[in-house]
Amino acid sequence: MSGDGRGIAERGRLAGAEEVVERALGAARGPCIVIVTEGSSAEVRFANNVTTTNGTRRDRRVSVICFSGEGEGASSGVASASGAVEVEDLVRAADADARGAGPAEDASELLGGDADADFGEPLETTSLGVLSGVLGQLGEAFARARSEDHVLAGFATHEVSTTYFASST
User: Fold this and answer.
1) Greatest CA span in the chain, whole angstroms?
2) Strands lying side by side in the sheet with 32-47
């Protein structure tokens, strides 16, 4: 659990990428970068001339990079996790890693800038609907394969991925 007792998957709801970023940046003690990659996939699998499975899946990967030190150089630490992560735990791990690392002599300041206007927009996802053409034609392909004494096996996948990048600057 995070310090305030709330995990990123509160009451069955997976927090949005914007919330994950804000919580990570808020928990950081110094300069920090947060990368959240959200994925959505739809897939159909088939073997022995029949459809075996189909469905959709959502994936998330969160990476936190914290920086420590000034003057002669800075050090960095990285922590990553998948799924419904405890963001504050990731920040603490990355911060501890940075504080324990030696300074990098080629360190420079993080670039600043404003968030893109669409940063908080809802995530684009995929669905089995994008594979409806494949599903519709598999029945005919299976019948043809059986009549020719062939066996079909394979899969079709459609994936959508969005990467959110944010920094404390």
Assistant:
1) 75
2) 75-82, 50-68, 32-47, 154-167
Positions of E strands within the chain? 9-10, 13-14, 32-47, 50-68, 75-82, 154-167
Which of 97, 111, 125, 96 has the alpha carbon at shortest distance from 17?
Answer: 125
Per the DSSP assignment, residues forming a β-bridge with 51 are 46
Q: What is the pLDDT of residue 155?
A: 95
Q: What pTM did the predictor assign?
A: 0.77
Q: How many Cβ atoms sit within 10 Å of the Cβ of residue 109? A: 9
Which of 70, 62, 68 lies closest to 97, judged by CA? Answer: 68
Alpha-carbon distance of 40 to 57, in angstroms, equals 6
Closest CA to 156 of 52, 59, 58: 52
| Predicted confidence (pLDDT) per residue in 80-135, tens digit | 767 677 888 888 888 888 888 777 777 778 888 888 888 878 888 999 999 999 98
